[in-house]
Amino acid sequence: QVQLMESGGGSVQAGGSLTLSCTASTVSIYYLDWGWFRQAPGKEREGVAVIDRDGTISIADSVQGRFTISRDNGKNTLALQMNTLKPEDTAMYYCAAKWTMGRVLDPTEYKYSGQGTQVTVSS
Fold first, then answer.
1. Any residues with CB less than 8 A from the CB of 63 and at least 6 apart, and which?
2. How far is C-alpha 82 from the geometric centre of its chain's CA atoms?
3. Dihedral over alpha carbons 24, 30, 32, 38 (to 10 degrees)
4. Nearest CA to 105 among 56, 69, 59?
5. Which end of the chain is more exposed for a tag (fewer CB within 10 A), N or C?
């Protein structure tokens, strides 16, 4: 069982920055793909950024160049640095992890997810 806990959400004006953090309960996190997903009201959950078990990074086109993902396997933490935030980035952000390989930005592939942290960007 993998337990994930997010922190770092909040409210910010457009153009601002936030850093999200996720801590995993398992010491075997380096065997998993894990990343960040978000869900805005009335919309489906979508992949934002993922680091797979080999360290390969996948970033959604909508945040490319603005968001950076990083992981620290020794500390079992995953971070999402979000810069130049836009109102359309407003959503609940979730940290998620999976054992299976492939389809890294597909949220339906992920077995483990945290409770989420809210990010609100005002114009």
1. 48, 49, 82, 89
2. 10
3. 50
4. 59
5. N
Tokens of 101: 């390989």
Locate 12 and state its tokens. 């910010």
**CB-count exposure of residue 109 (10 Å: 0-12, 13-18, 19+):** middle
In 56-107, which residue ranges form alpha helices assigned H by DSSP? none
Structure tokens at 80: 């999402």
| Closest to 80 measured CA to CA, from 8, 3, 16, 2 | 8
CB 53 within 8 A of CB 30: yes
pLDDT at 24: 92
Tokens of 97: 């992890």
With H, G, I as helix, E, B as strand and everything else as coil, classify residue 87. helix
